[in-house]
Every structure is written in C-alpha cells, then in structure tokens.
Amino acid sequence: MESPDQIICYQAIGKALADAAPAGWSSIEANITLAGSRVDAVVSYQATQGSGYLTGVPMLARNFYELARLISTEEKGLFKSCTFKLYSSGKYDASYTY
Length: 98
Prior knowledge:
2 helices, Murine Class I Major Histocompatibility Complex, H2-DB, Chain A, domain 1, 30% helix, alpha+beta, single chain, five-stranded antiparallel β-sheet, globular
C-alpha cells in the first residue's frame, strides 16, 4: 500500500512530466538510474505528431530520489533503476529494480 507521501511524490513526478511534454502527448516514459545520490534520467514521449525526448524536466531528479527514499526497505535499500510510464489519461505504471 502506498503511503500519502508516496502518492504526493508520484503526483509531483506526473505533473513535472506532463508539464514538460508537448501538446498532444499520449504517453511519457522515464527510465531512471540511481547511483548513490546521483540520478540519471532518459525521458521519452509519444505524441500525435511523433515521438521525442524531454530534457531538463524541473525537479524530476529530486522527486525520483525522494521516491526511492520513500519506497526503500531495510532489506533492499534504494532502487537501482525505475521505469515510470505516464499516460495522458492520468494513469501510470512504475517498476523498480533493486
């Protein structure tokens, strides 16, 4: 079950991605890698006019690092990578590798 803080973090990630995407986008996929406190992100989108990449999404790295901290467990620690997919309907999928 997701905590209220996790939900707020997911919402912040979704808003940052949606705000950075061009009009007419249908899906956005963020592939995130954590290495210590460093966050690397490759963000792609699908839109009616074609596909492309988003760069410089404000607060994205910080929000994903915060999410990693929120969902970490003592046994697993922080996730090593995450794939976050946002759909224009507002639904999202997230998967993690530890």
